[in-house]
Amino acid sequence: MSNFGVLPPKLVLDPMLRGWLLEDLGRGDRTTQTLLNHNATDGLALWVAKANGVIAGLAVAARVFELLNEKVSFVPRVPEGAWCQRQEVVAEIHGSLDTLLMGERVALNIVMRLSGIATLTRKYVEQISDVSAKLVDTRKTTPGLRLLEKYATQVGGAINHRMGLDDAVMIKDNHIAAAGGIGKAIARIRAQIPYPLTIEVETESLEQVQEALQHKADIIMLDNMPLDLMREAVQIIRHYDHHVKIEASGNITLETIRAVAETGVDYISSSAPITQSTWLDLSMRISG
């Protein structure tokens, strides 16, 4: 099983990578530049997995090295989105030794972080692979890393939820309280937003589900509902308007996601693949 996400264009990606390289290099790599003294000797570096997992971010790592030296050759040995095995070579990089050493940490950090997310995402997705519900991510991301972390969930097999607050309207409990009810919130927002934007409403009770339906919400989120209540809510929504999409959210775990999917919802949102993932350990070995 292999999944592909969409990376941001270089116009967006490069400033991020340059910033991370500047953070690490500072005024220069004291060790490498002193040791090699601008020696242009080429070498080969192998990236080796120290654990099993799903690989994500190799194209980003390649760009890190290219920004340091456009002559570097970065060759993936494991396809993006594929499982790798411990001790497997996942990439080989050929270029000047100073470039390989200066780019090592930033490039590895990116791939280890993204691969960890893709690995845990894949485990969640596999729990519901034979039902219609799809896993979606959330905005609970590391500041500055959202584009790449959400890319990693795509590689793992999930679907991206809104990237930011400008992507869609999501009326949550605090919005409902501020507006004085779901109906008032929907009416006020619908009168002002561009027509292509969808309106999603977070609900916690059947009464709120009914109100969201009456005011023609496009997506209804069932937030932290017990399974029996969730099943009833799904039946009500399907009977009222089968075009309305249904999302389940709240305390989704590897142990509970299957039961939630079987209630008949369309989407299950969870921050866990990003917030609870651990890095996939990789190392770089200079071989000559």
TrEMBL record:
Residues 117-285 form the Quinolinate phosphoribosyl transferase C-terminal domain. It holds the Pfam family QRPTase_C. Pathway: Cofactor biosynthesis; NAD(+) biosynthesis; nicotinate D-ribonucleotide from quinolinate: step 1/1. One of its GO terms (biological process) is NAD+ biosynthetic process. Residues 30-115 form the Quinolinate phosphoribosyl transferase N-terminal domain. SUPFAM superfamilies: Nicotinate/Quinolinate PRTase C-terminal domain-like, Nicotinate/Quinolinate PRTase N-terminal domain-like. Substrate binds at residues 105, 138-140, 162, 172, 202, 223, 249-251, 270-272. Its EC number is 2.4.2.19. The keyword Flavoprotein does not apply. It catalyses: nicotinate beta-D-ribonucleotide + CO2 + diphosphate = quinolinate + 5-phospho-alpha-D-ribose 1-diphosphate + 2 H(+). This is Probable nicotinate-nucleotide pyrophosphorylase [carboxylating]. It comes from Iningainema tapete BLCC-T55.
